[in-house]
Amino acid sequence: MNQIFESILDPYYMQVLTLLGIYIIAALGLNLITGATGMFSFGHAAYFAVGAYGAAILTVNFGFPFYIALVAGGLMASLAAIIIGFPALRLTGDYLGIVTLGFGEIIRVVFLNMKITGGAIGLSGIAKETNLSIVIVLVMVTVYIMYALDNSRFGRALVAIREDDIAAESMGINVMTYKMKAFALGCFFAGIAGGLYSHLILYINPSDFGFAKSFEFLCFVVLGGLGSIPGVILGTTVLTLAPEFLRAVADYRMMIYGALMVFMMIIRPKGLLGDVNLHRIFFKKKYQKQANRSTAAGG
Amino acid sequence: MLMEVNDLHVSYGAIRALTGISCTLDKGEIVALIGANGAGKTTTLRTISGLIKPAKGSITFKNMDLTKMPPHKIVAAGISQVPEGRRVFPDMSVMENLEMGAYTRKDKGEIKESLNNVFKRFPRLEERKHQLAGTLSGGEQQMLAMGRALMSKPEVMLLDEPSMGLAPMLVKEIFEIIRDINKTGTTIMLVEQNAHMALSIADRAYVLETGEVVLSGQAKELANNEQVRKAYLGED
Q: Which pLDDT band holds residue A299 (cuts at 50, 70, 90)?
């Protein structure tokens, strides 16, 4: 499968597309936390880092098979999320944002000072295990899971919490438990993405996972449209590919990137696909029929 | 006795909101809590539904101790709240809002039956079932909040300021619906600033002042009480 890609794409594009897939997985995880449940997390890169280091240390130092290490990395990220979630998720809004930012930095600094992670020198000697076809499959699995969650009791409870947590609580939704589950699950995907990342880039260093990375993930989700799965995929694609295509104007690259963000937020504050209901567009007829019926009944 | 609240104390930090509230609720009654702003009416209701934990005192419902129960278990036990300011889920459709109300229930057939009952009671909600709740008028949102609370098939319904921000005509309609819900077997505890409306449909009432019950009795008697007329019914 991967050989087919290799024969038609040059290695540079392969790398960019693989990275894009990895970011989509991480961004969809963050979307579950920030988009669906409405919890602001400025520390997503930290869970990405836990997965990246966790999986890499398992394959490099302990000779674990890649896939097992990958899942283990995801679980470690979940565990970190649960430990941090207990104090942090009692907060909401900006306060939660600040606390997640703080914990994100703590995790990064811990990696910087641990022996097993190689400290500031970083971790090298990671085998190349990630390739485009694996990432495509995992993106599809992630998208499928996210859609399934969206349409489940669990997903609806998360949306209720986002819309009004007090009302959700009076409907009999255990808000704290659901927030924790969403947070742990979202970070699990960050961890998986991190494991894929370290086995693609082959060298990781704590400075790869700083606040800038967390902010980038948040931009993917916000630009695409909080809570919209196609939106998040589109937002991640635009923001990952734009810097690559803008290499021609290298000096002005980040300026254009920044201007693009500002412009987007002005013309589409809810994100690219934030208020677009794709289901409604594709099944227009069905909705029209219902609308007609209800206006007829309403007189 | 269906529910008994005994010597409830609640503080928000240093501020003491309730200083020993006791009240009871019998099956099939409508009981009103009336009083001015800051008297502790909403706090009492929220403590019953578990959103606030009391510092002291107890709440018993059918031999169950609600005092330490988390809100989702209290809903499952049969007490459902229509929160102050309605608090519908604005970006969900009317239908989805109602489905959220049945969150603690599992039986699809029974949920469907409750849904039909809600639509029978509020035909306007059925007409607008695909509309986003945030785009409904105030009165319709109040109906939706009540419908949503009924979806958990509660034995006791706690209503917090159902008249808030509604036109007088609508207030009348809402109170008629409350009486109707009560007639079909739901016990109701009602918090209202509009003492006149509350006393007109309630069986019994408690008058709250700065976190304490200062008066209680049959609603009719209270409506004729000199003190109540002066303080809460705006007569002199």
A: very low
Instruction: Answer yes or no: are the C-beta atoms of A202 and A126 closer than 8 Å.
Output: yes
Residue B233 is given by DSSP the state S
What's this model's pTM, rounded to 2 decimal places?
A: 0.87
> Comparing C-alpha atoms, which of A178, A253, A197, A214 is closest to residue A69?
A197
pLDDT tens for each residue of A57-100: 999 999 999 999 999 999 999 999 999 999 999 888 889 999 99
Chain segment A237-259, per-residue pLDDT in tens:
988 888 788 777 777 777 877 88
Q: What is the pLDDT of residues A222-234, one digit of tens each?
A: 888 888 999 999 9
In chain A, where are the structural domains located?
A: 10-210
Return the sign of the alpha-carbon dihedral for residues B138, B142, B143, B149. Answer: positive
Tell me chain B's radius of gyration from C-alpha atoms: 17
* CB contact residues (below 8 A), chain A span 153-212, against chain B: 153, 156-157, 159-160, 163-164, 166-174
List of domains in chain B = 1-78+155-236 (3.40.50.300), 88-153 (no CATH)
User: Does A275 touch chain B if contact means CB atoms closer than 8 Å?
Assistant: no
pLDDT of residue A109 exceeding 70: yes
Q: Residues of B numbered 17-36 whose beta carbons fall under 8 angstroms of chain A's beta carbons: which are they?
A: none
In the chain, the amino acid numbered A251 is D
**Residues from chain B contacting residue A290 (CB–CB below 8 Å):** 130
B91 with A159: Cβ contact below 8 A: yes
At residue A282, the pLDDT reads 67
Nearest Cα residue in chain B from A158: B100
Round to whole Å and give the CA distance between A255 and B47: 53
Question: Which residues of chain A have a CB within 8 Å of the CB of B152?
Answer: 171-172
Chain A residue closest in CA terms to B126: A294
